[in-house]
Amino acid sequence: MANYKDIKGFKVQSFSADPIPSVAGWTAGGNYPSSEPGSAGAGTQTAALGTAPPGYSANSYEYNGTSWTSGGSMSQPRGQAQSNMTGTQTAALIVGGRYTPAPTFGLVKTEEYDGSSWSNGGDYPEQLRNANNMGTQTAAVNAGGNSANPSVATNNTNHYNGSSWTSASNNSTARFDTALFGIQTAGVMAGGFSKNPGSNVFFDDTEEYDGSSWTSGGNLPTENNAGAASGTLTAGIMFGGSQPATPGVVGTTIGYNGTSWSSLPATLSSARSGHGSARSGTQTLTLAWTGSTPPATNSTEEYEDNSPYADKNTLNIGQTFYNTTEKKFRYTGEGASSWAAGGSLSDARYGFWASFGLQTAAVACGGADSPNEFFATTEEYDGSSWTSGGNIPTALGSGGSLGTLTAGFGAGAYRFSPAARISSSYEYDGSSWTSGGDLSTQRINSIGFGTQTAGAISGGSNPGNTIIGNTEEYDGSSFSSGGALATAVRNGASAGTQTAGIVFGGTTGSVSGVTQTYDGSSFSTNPATMNAARTSVKSGLNGTQTSTVAFGGNTGSQSNVCEDWNGTTWTTSTALPATVQSHGGAGTGSAALSFGGTTPDRGDSFEYTLAGTATVKTVTTS
Asked: 114 phi and psi, to 5 degrees?
């Protein structure tokens, strides 16, 4: 059997313990334009959105990883809204709050942000301030909050679908000013506050939400009110807040693993409560701003966890090692972005029906080879080799696909026998395919992005071979109409979510480099075009609207061009080791995978590592 050096081109150092120290901490970012507590927050560390705190202003501000600039103004000024916002910088949602003068104790008004301007959404069922909101702009959940009576906390739970609120199962404990993170179907609410006559009540309770009911989670180490949070149900982070006993306002940082809370090795430089946070950030990369220290502050702090197996690590560039204790292999990116040879597919092929997943957990399904052999087989990649997965019912090619190895999706296709374009879709659970809802439009060479339960299929060509621009959104069972592409295209590439997607490249009748972004309802054309216009391009599909990579394709001839996207510009990066088109693609903007393709028929794969990032894999020693 070949050793790792023969496959990857470099030798792995072996250590009995991890040689990279755990480094996690808060560092100063650009100051916020206002210094009062209570700023609502959304977005990520490098693309955050905040509102003006209790000055009852309509202002909003955007953070680019370095500094804050003015964003669009809300139609409704509001304060007491620290936990009232959720989503991303380009697809955010805010509900409730308070507007002076009294007796306006709570607002019902919902507003949505598209990255430049706010527009009205559906009103909340009751007046509300200090609300507890999480999820996305089109799939949010609000739990509890402070009702129109200023001294009464509620435990009402409501869902938002992008246009209206509907009632859901109430959470167990009435409270407001909680720390929330996650999505509508996998979220966490922790801590918070309520008032009883003559006393204030702080909570240490954690509740987990699955989209239909609340259950108890692990308690916080101590009661906490007006803390902030980011992350997912199984990898959350909470920071700051106030406690009923000394020291009062705190800067502690704790993590949640889906079961229990534990201390993380960093504290905020300035203890604070009532602060804004990057609600769509991660456990290893997030942001805090404003709050009361006391007094009020306008400081911003960035959190980054560079501990040994974090997703992002710029330490010890070029280091490669294998940890014999935890059986983890780690390759930290060289000074420049790089491609390395990966394992080979069992069947060389091109024109995949579905290709999706991560660099260490990818799926290749369907396609054909030059002798006109057509495939219904699936192969799965684990970061070093391809193995057989579940077959689809018939040989297919040229579909639109999205998702992960255990929750994948493909829709529309060219069926090889009997030859026809079809509208069928199939869902993959990591072992087998099952039928999903049908597209309303038969199409091939379409473009997919999002998840198995919140996905989008755009563009392609219909049975008359006309390039189409319509989008259909998938909710896990059926399709509904979405916003049309600004420019109809087929054979393009994509990344992001159903409410924050990006489509680029392809053909409009001629080779295109157009970049188009989606906010969950409509596409807009980004002024930045690809440096190399091309069709049959592939991408780090599980990247984001602001971070992905495009590789290979056809510029008029077969190409090995690779470009990085940072949300603003395309930058030419290290070229693929081979020119390739009609290939498969998976991964993210920092860890992508290219496999198969033509011409000639290819079965090899290549792994991309963005400069200064790390790949981590579990390996065996057999």
From this structure: -110, 15
Write the single-letter amino acid at 424.
S
d(CA 107, CA 195) in angstroms, rounded, equals 20
Order across the sheet with 515-518: list the strands. Answer: 493-496, 501-504, 515-518, 523-526
The three-state secondary structure class of 4 is helix
List Cβ<8 Å contacts ≥24 apart for 579-584.
579/552, 580/552, 581/350, 581/535, 581/536, 581/552, 581/553, 581/554, 582/350, 582/351, 582/536, 583/350, 583/352, 583/536, 583/538, 583/552, 584/352, 584/355, 584/362, 584/364, 584/538
Percent of the chain with pLDDT over 70: 87
CA 366, distance to chain mean position in Å, is: 27
Question: What CA dihedral angle connects 393, 398, 403 and 406, to 10 degrees?
Answer: 30
Closest by alpha carbon to 225, among 250, 196, 203, 257?
203
Q: What is the mean pLDDT of residues 454-476?
A: 96
Q: From CA 179, how far away is CA 134, in angstroms rounded? A: 10
What domains are there in the chain, each with its CATH number?
24-305 (2.120.10.80), 331-618 (2.120.10.80)
Q: Which of 74, 212, 82, 187 is nearest to 134 (CA)?
A: 187
Residue 606 in contact with residue 620, Cβ under 8 Å?
no
If we measure between CA atoms, which residue out of 558, 486, 489, 554 comes closest to residue 525?
Answer: 486
DSSP string, 329-381: EEEE--SS-EEEE-PPPSS--BS-SEEEEETTEEEEE--B-TT--B---EEEE
Residue 362, strand partner residues: 357, 381
Q: What is the pLDDT confidence band of residue 308, given thresholds at 50, 70 and 90?
A: very low
- Token pair recorded at residue 290: 């404003």
Q: How far apart are CA 444 and CA 316, in angstroms?
A: 45
What does each C-alpha distance from 616 to 291, 326, 473 come to in angstroms? 36, 12, 33
For residues 563 and 573, the answer to whether their CB atoms sit within 8 Å is: yes
Cα 229 off chain centre by: 16
For 5, list phi and psi in degrees, rounded to 5. -65, -40
List phi, psi (to 5°) of 534: -165, 155
Show the tokens assigned to 74. Answer: 């809300």
Half-sphere exposure of 481 (CA within 13 A, CB side): 4
Helix or strand or coil: residue 606? strand
- The per-residue pLDDT for 36 is 73
Task: Give the tokens for residue 141.
Answer: 């959940």
Q: Quick check: 458 and 490 in contact, CB under 8 A?
A: no
- Strand 13-15 and strand 320-323: the pairing is parallel
**DSSP structural state of residue 273:** B
- Partners of 28 in the beta sheet? 301
pTM of the model: 0.55
pLDDT tens per residue across span 259-281: 999 998 789 999 999 999 999 98
Looking at residue 467, its amino acid is: I
399-425: b or e for each residue (b if 16 or more CB lie within 10 Å)? bbbbbbbebbbbbbbbbbeeeebbbbb
Q: Is beta strand 378-381 parallel, antiparallel or unpaired with respect to 396-397?
A: unpaired
Tokens 């979405």 found at: 482
Helix (H, G, I), strand (E, B) or coil at 5: helix
The pair of structure tokens assigned to 226 is 């007006």
Q: What is the pLDDT, as a whole number, of residue 27?
A: 87
